[in-house]
């Protein structure tokens, strides 16, 4: 799909605030409401806009501990990975799970919980009980330096 300046402006604006009304978005990108709505619909139908979500503030919800986990598996087989991925999908504490290469692990996870006690319960009560998990290395977030949900778009110009 080819993008023009207005498409990119729309994408940049809604990445920052998807709750904008169509009128507000149109004003920001320099369109009238009808053409703006048509462009947004076209971006949705093309699959460029995947979904719209509301971001919640972790600390306001008592989720004060963020851990980054490196997970090692015993076997590198599709069935072993499928079992792991299906189990992880059922854990609301896991914000992100990525199968990776080039590390001394197979998966990188971001886990958000209330405190160290809840992390301990999650680690020993759920994560290490998944068949095939042979190692877990944990790092804990001290401070978030950058927390963005926006994708870079300048390469599309």
Summarize the SSE layout with pairings.
Blueprint: H1 5-16, H2 22-29, H3 33-45, E1 65-73, H4 78-89, E2 94-99, E3 107-113, H5 116-125, E4 133-140
Antiparallel strand pairs: 1-3, 1-4, 2-3
Helix pairs in contact: 1-2, 2-3
What does it look like?
The structure is a single chain. With 157 residues, the chain is of the alpha+beta class. The protein folds into two domains: 5-54, Orthogonal Bundle (Arc Repressor Mutant, subunit A); 59-140, Alpha-Beta Plaits, CATH 3.30.70. 35% of the residues lie in helices and 19% in strands. The protein has a four-stranded antiparallel beta sheet. 12% of the residues are buried.
Question: What's the gist of this structure?
Answer:
With 157 residues, the chain is an alpha+beta fold. It has helices at 5-16, 22-29, 33-45, 78-89, 116-125; strands at 65-73, 94-99, 107-113, 133-140. Helix 1 (5-16) packs across helix 2 (22-29).
